[in-house]
Amino acid sequence: MRININNSVFDEEEPNVLVEDEGTIDLEERNWYLNNQKAEGIVKDIRLDGAYFLSYKLEVQNKKKLLISSDDLVFKLHFEFDEDVKYQFLQNKDQYIEINKGTYELLFLSQYNKQIVDHFNSKKSIEIFFEEFFLKEIAGQEFNQLLSDIQHREVLLDKTNNSLQEGVFITDEINAIINEINNCNYLGFKRKVFLRLKIKELIIVAMTTYESSYKKTNLLEQDVKSLQDVEEYIKTNLKKDLTISELAILAGLNTSKLKKSFKKVYGTTIFKYITSIRIEKAKELILKEKYTISEASYEVGYKNPQHFTVAFKKKLGYLPSQLKK
């Protein structure tokens, strides 16, 4: 697998990330520390035979560009945590895929779309590149139809005015695995085994959730629209005491169908989704609006800051007080 990641946050004297493996790689790991006029932060780099994991935590001065190209047929899972991003295919600039904050998407670099570009202001995301053989080694034939559908996404893009704005919600299970990878404390051989297994687990869980969401077209168009209305209502009313009954009335569905349909589309339950959105909004208020922890917790619907702290730690793996350091 050969992937070139040309990142404009690197200084000219610093190399761009080039992944090129000709044989079996047990596991290689390194960190790229950036502290220049363009960006500040870290890029974690983990390489396996047939897969490549990147974790970005960057703050940039001005909007930057990330250009990804590959000479091989490569799939890419992109998990976005900080801002809405748009991936544009250079071979056809009218085609693009939008990934909203708190969601992830599955992309395919084909012989037709060898290069994609991502513009960003700050970057807190996870990217996993993998070849088809790697997925088949860990999951057999489980995702054959999904991979085939993604490979022919050009047809889907043509049917949706050349843009795709789906994105699958990042579940608590996916978040937990990502936190375990980023916060791994093992050393030596144990670290290699742990990271290898966790990256494989992350791919399988993400692909399973994605496949379930991808099949949401089985729902009636009106039901999908109703769920989107529910999602928008949740995001704009976090301070309220949201209930299933209230949301069911809004959607025009009974509570049972609402819960079942919501999980099918978003890959998680309504209450877990509400909790995740509240935590992400509170995190944004603390970091960008300089709210205190108590103020932020109240603003997103928590009457007790201690309950907020417990939920925050469970979802993100660290205490909200660490955001203040």
TrEMBL record:
> Which keywords describe this protein according to UniProt?
DNA-binding, Transcription, Transcription regulation
SMART domains in the record: HTH_ARAC
Highest taxon in the source lineage: Bacteria
GO terms, molecular function? DNA-binding transcription factor activity; sequence-specific DNA binding
Q: Which InterPro entries match?
A: Homeodomain-like_sf, HTH_AraC, HTH_AraC-typ_CS, PchR_regulatory_protein
Q: Which residues form the HTH araC/xylS-type domain?
A: 228-325
Q: Per its UniProt record, what Pfam families does this chain match?
A: HTH_18
- Its name, as the record gives it, is AraC-type DNA-binding protein
Which species is this UniProt entry from?
Wenyingzhuangia marina
